Amino acid sequence: MDYSNKNIVFIIANITLSAGTERAVVNTANNFINNGNNVTIISLYSDSGDAYYKLKDSVKIIHHAAKINSNLLSRLTDYWKIAKNINKYFCGGEYVIGTTHAINCMMTFLSKRKKLELIGCEHMGYGAAPRITRIIRKYLYPKLDALVV
User: Fold this and answer.
1) Which of 12, 28, 45, 98 has its Cα between 20 and 30 A from that of 149?
2) Percent of the chain that is helix, strand, coil (3-state, to 5)
C-alpha cells in the first residue's frame, strides 16, 4: 500500500509551546513529510509564531486565534463554532489528526460532506480525564474513524 502523497492535517491547541504534545506533533509531521506527504498544522489558539520545535519548511502552519470560554456549556458551543470555522481549511479527503480529548471531540463537528478521515490521538492516560470528559467522549468518540492512545 502506498502511504505517500496524502494530505494530513494536525489540529493542536498551540504549536508555539514547548510541551510533549507539541514535540510529538512536530516529530510526526516531519516524518510524514519525509515520506512524501503534505502536512498542515492548525494551531487553534495561537495567532502567530513558529513551532517551538524544528519543523520541516514544507509543513504549513495555520494560526486560527480561537477563543474559548471557561464555562462547560459555553465551551461546547465554542468548539462547535470553531469546527464550523475551520471547515474552510479542508478541501476534502484529508486525514485529520486531533491531539487532545477536547480537540478530538470538536473534530466530530467537522463537515461530513468533505469526507475527512478523523483520527483522535490521546497524549495522556485515557482514564485520567475528568469524569465529564469521559462521559462526552463516550458519545462523540464513536464518530471518529480511528483513535490512537
Assistant:
1) 45
2) 40, 20, 45
- CB-CB contact of 60 with 33 (8 Å): no
- In angstroms, how far is CA 13 from the centroid of its own chain? 8
Q: How many CA atoms lie within 13 A of 52 on its CB side?
A: 15
Distance separating alpha carbons of residues 108 and 145, to the nearest angstrom: 10
Q: Terminal CA-to-CA distance of the chain, rounded, Å? A: 24
Closest CA to 39 of 58, 21, 53: 58
List pLDDT tens digits, range 135-149. Answer: 989 999 999 999 998
Joined together, the cell numbers standing for residue 99 give 491531539
- Do 38 and 3 contact (CB within 8 A), yes or no? no
